[in-house]
Amino acid sequence: MSPDGGPMLKTTHGFAENMIDEQESKRSAMLELQHISHNYGAVKALRDVSLTAYKGEFLTILGESGSGKTTILRVISGLETATSAEVIAIEGANVAHVPAAHRNCTTVFQNYALFPHMSVQENVEYGLSVRGMPKADRAKRALEALEMVKLDGKADRRVSQLSGGERQRVALARAIVTQPAILLLDEPLGALDEKLRQQMQEELVRLHSRLGMTFVYITHSQEEALTMSDRIALMCNGEIVQIGTPEDLFDRPNSAFAAEFMGFENIFEGHLKEISDERVSVEVNGHGFHGRWSGHQAPLIGQKAFAAIRAERLKLEGAENHAEDNALKCSAGSTLYRGKYVDQHLQTEIGPMRARIWDRANRKSSISTVSWHPDDCVVTAP
C-alpha cells in the first residue's frame, strides 16, 4: 500500500480510454470483442459487451462474483460459445466459430490443472508434445520457460513436492512455453496467501514485461488490478461499466458503483447545485460540498449525484482547518485497529463517516471537525 492508504499503482505505460482517435489508430489490437452476449438459461451473463486488448497490453477484467468476467474469458478461449457474437478476433482473424484448441491463446486457471503423475518439466512440455515438437526442442523450450519463472532448478520434481506458489509458476511456464498470442489468466492467485500473492503480482509484472505478450487477467481484487494492469475493465451485471487506466478507476470512478467497488468508504447521495468546468457543487442533506466531477456523462444542474471521499483523505482537526476545504462538525465513535492504521468512525450531520489514521502517534485527543479538500471529493453519477 502507498503511504496514504491506497494500493500501489502500476507506473508503467498506461492505456487511457479517452485517447484521441489518431493515437488509438496507431495501436495494434491483439483481441477484439464486438457485441458479445451470453445467457445461461434465463440468466444474462453478458450483455452486448465490446472490448479491445492491444498488443503487449496487460488488461485486467475486474468485478465481483457473478459480474460476467469469467464468462468473457471462457468465450475468448473458446471454452464457451457465446449466445450471440458479432466479432471475436485474435490477431485480426475472427475466431468466433474456431474450436478452443485452434485459437492462439492459452489459459492459466486458479486450480493450476497440473498432471500429478508428471514431473515439472514434463508438465511444461505437454503442450509442445501434443503439437508434435521433437523431444530435444521441447526440452530446450521447457527449460527456458522454467528459467523465466525461476524454477529451472526444479525441473525433475514432482508436482506434489512443490509449494502452492511453485505450482502456480509451473502453470505459468506451461502456458507461456507454447508462445500464444494472448495469455488468459483466470484468478490465478486466488488460492495463495497474502504474502505469496503479492510476490506473484510482482513476478507477473516482470514476466509480462519480459515476454511482451498480451495478458488478459481476471480478478475480483482491486489491489491486483491496480498493481499489475495497463488498463482495467470494471464489470457489473454482465456489462463493462468503466474502462481506463488504474489511475482512472482509482481516482475518477464514473459511478457510485465504481466508487464503492474501488474502495471509497464515504459515499453520500445528493444533487448538483453548481457546475464550473470539472468542479461542481453538490448538496447533501442540506450541506453544500465542492468536488471534481467524474461521471460518465456531462453533469446537469439538479441531477442526482454522489459525493465520494476516501477515508485516508479525511482530516480530523479544528482551528487549523483551511477555508477552501469542505468541513462538517463531527463526534468520534468507535475505532478499529488494523495494524498499519486505525479506522476512526465518526458521526456527522450527513451521516456516519470513516477516517483512516496512519500516524497513530499524532492522533487527536479531541475531534470536533472533519474536513477534506475539494480535489479529494469525487462527485459522480448514480
Task: Describe the structure concisely for a colleague.
This protein is α+β, with helices and mostly antiparallel strands and 382 residues long. It is 23% helix and 34% strand. The model is unreliable at 11-25 (pLDDT under 50).
Indicate the low-confidence ranges by residue numbers.
Answer: 11-25
> What is the number of E strands?
20
Q: What is the residue-mean pLDDT, rounded to a whole number?
A: 89
Question: In this structure, how is the largest beta sheet organized?
Answer: 6 strands, mixed
Q: Describe the oligomeric state of these chains in a short phrase.
A: single chain
Helix content range of the residues, please? 10-25%
The DSSP helix count reads 9
Anisotropy-based shape: globular
Tell me the Rg in angstroms: 24 Å
Q: Kindly estimate the percentage of residues that lie in beta strands according to DSSP.
A: 25-35%
Structural class: alpha+beta
What do you see in this structure?
By secondary structure, the chain is α+β, with helices and mostly antiparallel strands. The chain is 23% helix and 34% strand. It contains nine helices and 20 strands. The chain has helices spanning 21-25, 69-77, 120-130, 135-148, 164-176, 194-211, 222-228, 246-251, 256-261, and strands at 29-40, 43-54, 58-62, 84-90, 93-94, 105-108, 182-186, 214-219, 231-236, 239-244, 266-276, 279-284, 287-293, 304-309, 315-316, 326-337, 342-348, 351-357, 369-372, 378-380. Strands 6-7-8-3-9-10 form a six-stranded mixed sheet, sandwiched between helices. Strands 11-12-13-20-14 form a five-stranded mixed β-barrel. Strands 15-19-16-17-18 form a five-stranded antiparallel sheet, with no helix packed on it. Helix 3 packs across helix 4 (135-148) and helix 3 runs parallel beside helix 5. The two termini are 28 Å apart. Residues 11-25 have low confidence and may be disordered.
